[in-house]
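User: Sequence in, structure out. Go.
Assistant: Echoing your sequence, followed by the structure tokens.
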Amino acid sequence: MDSWSPSLTVDDEFEKLVIRMNPPRVTVDNASSRTATLIKVDSANRRGSLLEVVQVLNDMDLIIRRAYISSDGEWFMDVFHVTDQNGNKLSEDDVAERIQQSLRPRARSFHSLRRSVGVQAANEHTTIELTGRDRPGLLSEVFAVLADLKCNVVAAEVWTHNSRMASVVYITDDETGLPIDDPDRLAKIKRLLLYVLKGDRDKRSANTAVSVGSTNTQRRLHQMMYADRDYDMDSGSTNDRSKPLVTVENFADKGYTVVNLSCPDRPKLLFDTVCTLTDMQYVVFHATVIAEGPVAYQEYYIRHVDGCPISSEAEQQRVILCLEAAIRRRTSEVYRLKMINSFLALLCLFVYDFMFDVLDVLGLFVIQGIRLELCSEDRVGLLSDVTRIFRENGLSVTRAEVTTRGSQAVNAFYVTDSSGNQVKSETIEAVRKEIGLTILRVKDDAYSKSPPQESGRFSLGNLFRSRSEKVLYNLGLMRSCS
């Protein structure tokens, strides 16, 4: 339990005074680089400033190509080379203002990390936090319980990693559309969800707690999985070429610990690593990030919040495991690495079977779930019905993003079969027919470009064409028509 102390209040107020005297300065430079917009941030230094800036860039869905970070002493200066999702420079006028808003002092929040089911009433919704052992059909059972309890899910995000699941779900009362704040009803929701999470085997999710404060959803998911020690379990074969390479060593002359990281690049990678270092109570003093090709390189000079570098080999190993876990938690993303030039792409048209096997061995293609997008008129029980159909057809949800826009439910599910393998196209089509072909759409080239053939009709030309289209799409040489 967090305890109040006079020194904490004094330090907090002093931080606010320093920030007011030296407000953050953010400049957006579109002239210095041909390929990216430079966002420069300098301000009085305080703990967590770097994460707040990166979090804003993450929330704006910007791609960070390079970053140079320095925050030694009482001042920090950061430079980010960013583009939009399409690789273009930014044209938005409010980027600087949004970052400045994020760095303005505000009340400090405390978060307990030792909970499995938490319920928090906010101004517009009630927040439910879940962690537990992942298993096929778990998400369906969770949404079914909420539907039975007359709870409307307005948004949710679900991550799975190393057989563990973490989810943040936002609900309102079905009848009133207001947050649920009745203590007895909240206790019943927690009790029934805890029963679902524990199942027959999981004893690690036996605790319940009411969450205090609020935080960024994706940061909270990192915190929850870190608290659940998902990094403790085997995350894959040591021969896995796509596994992040993380090294940790002490720089004795300067009193820093140096963390070097390289892995296949993807969106939000910087946020995931900075978030993890911050929540592990480390301060980043200097950093360099380069992510202009298929592989991202990150170097951090860090110390613990007490000012000391990492002091033991066991602690170094823990940092390595936690960073590896942070990178792998977004397991449902399909990252297509554009590291093959167009000549090799043409070669792949003729020897695709062989090349796919080679690329898979090298870890260049990571297929970790088919993305299904659902857009429908929102109603109570919609998620329960959809995830039940998934379960009945043997689909396992590895990640989910649920949002409500007005009266429309806009949801994305990443699914595999019950063994974690890619789902057969026949199964996907059967699920779509049951839910509605116009309601549930496949956002994956393997299916959207090559509908299943009639039984007994085999066409080498069709096979070649669908596979070649997939290669070109993966390499960014062909755009989706959807």
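User: And one key feature?
Assistant: Residues 117-232 form a domain with the Alpha-Beta Plaits fold (CATH 3.30.70.260).
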